[in-house]
Design brief:
Elements: E1 2-8, H1 11-19, H2 21-28, E2 32-38, E3 51-52, E4 62-63, H3 65-73, E5 80-90, H4 93-99, E6 104-108, E7 125-128, H5 138-149, E8 182-183, E9 186-187, H6 197-215, H7 227-235, H8 240-245
Parallel strand pairs: 1-2, 1-6, 5-6, 5-7
Antiparallel strand pairs: 3-4, 8-9
Catalytic activity: guanosine(37) in tRNA + S-adenosyl-L-methionine = N(1)-methylguanosine(37) in tRNA + S-adenosyl-L-homocysteine + H(+)
Family: Belongs to the RNA methyltransferase TrmD family.
InterPro entries: Alpha/beta_knot_MTases (IPR029028), tRNA_m1G_MeTrfase_C_sf (IPR023148), tRNA_m1G_MeTrfase_TrmD (IPR002649), tRNA_m1G_MTases_N (IPR029026), tRNA_MeTrfase_TRMD/TRM10 (IPR016009)
Length: about 260
């Protein structure tokens, strides 16, 4: 079981993400555990005050390091203690896959002007979900909970369903369709109802390449590409120079016809 512990001043913000949908079902099946820890319970004053004014002056309040430490010490040992911070490592699918291999993850969700800088000595990693400012770490925590929990074995109904998702394969996902087969003049591609699984897989891979090239070509630098992918990218308008930049392998050479 993978256990998530979130240290927060507003546990009710995270409760719907912990209790509902796939995460809630995974908890009820004993596949993951989610613990919401209210840091106010570890304040040492009758008003449960967890913050104070910053030394040196300035606007806002800062969460005290001693409060964070007492909250952390109340928990079982963790594999990772993670602080959400604008200075943190960008949260990516690769990081999610790494965290899914752990047994106990603890997350510190800041508010106000954040934590006392000495809190950094209590953590093993800092994470950021992007270069923008939010009012607290709970929304970031919800993102990480959903991204990591779905990678735990048996959480998703299909064990392979996440492998073709965007970023898991190194590419954007291929387009998906369902009924109706025709909608406002737009038809579902015929190959998808052909029953030819090899042709469907081939179409999906090519569409993933096309979408990635058009919308996120930066992903191709780190994608695992095959010689056939290189041939498809050339047909999709890529240049040999771009293939070299993406470290793509040589496309297969066309077969020569035998002379009789």
């Amino acid at each position: 079981m993978l256990k998530f512990s979130f240290l927060t001043l507003f546990p009710e913000l995270l409760r719907p993400f912990a209790d509902e949908a796939i995460v809630g079902k995974a908890r009820s099946r004993g596949l993951i555990d989610v613990e919401l820890v209210n840091m106010r319970d570890y304040a040492d004053n009758k008003h449960h005050k967890v913050d104070d004014t910053p030394y040196g002056g300035g606007a806002g309040m800062v969460i005290r390091v001693d409060v964070a430490q007492r909250a952390l010490e109340s928990l079982p040992p963790a594999d990772e203690v993670i602080l959400f911070s604008p200075a943190g490592q960008p949260f990516t699918q690769q990081v999610a896959e790494e965290l899914a291999q752990r047994r106990h993850l603890v997350f510190l969700c800041g508010r106000y002007e954040g934590f006392d800088a000495r809190t950094e000595a209590l953590v093993t990693r800092e994470l950021s979900i992007g270069d923008f400012v939010m009012m607290g770490g709970e929304a970031a925590a919800a993102c990480v909970l959903e991204a990591v929990a779905r990678l735990v074995p048996d959480v998703l109904g299909d064990a392979q369903s996440h492998e073709a998702d965007s970023f898991s394969s190194g590419l954007l996902d291929y387009p998906e369709y369902t009924r109706p087969a025709e909608w406002q003049g737009q038809n579902v591609p015929e190959v998808l109802s052909s029953g030819n699984h090899a042709a469907i897989a081939r179409w999906r891979r090519r569409e993933a390449l096309a979408r990635t090239k058009a919308r996120r070509p930066d992903l191709l630098h780190s994608a695992s590409l095959s010689p056939q992918d290189s041939a498809d990218l050339l047909e999709l308008g890529a240049t040999p120079a771009e293939l070299a930049e993406w470290h793509a392998p040589e496309p297969p050479k066309p077969k020569q016809k035998r002379r009789k």
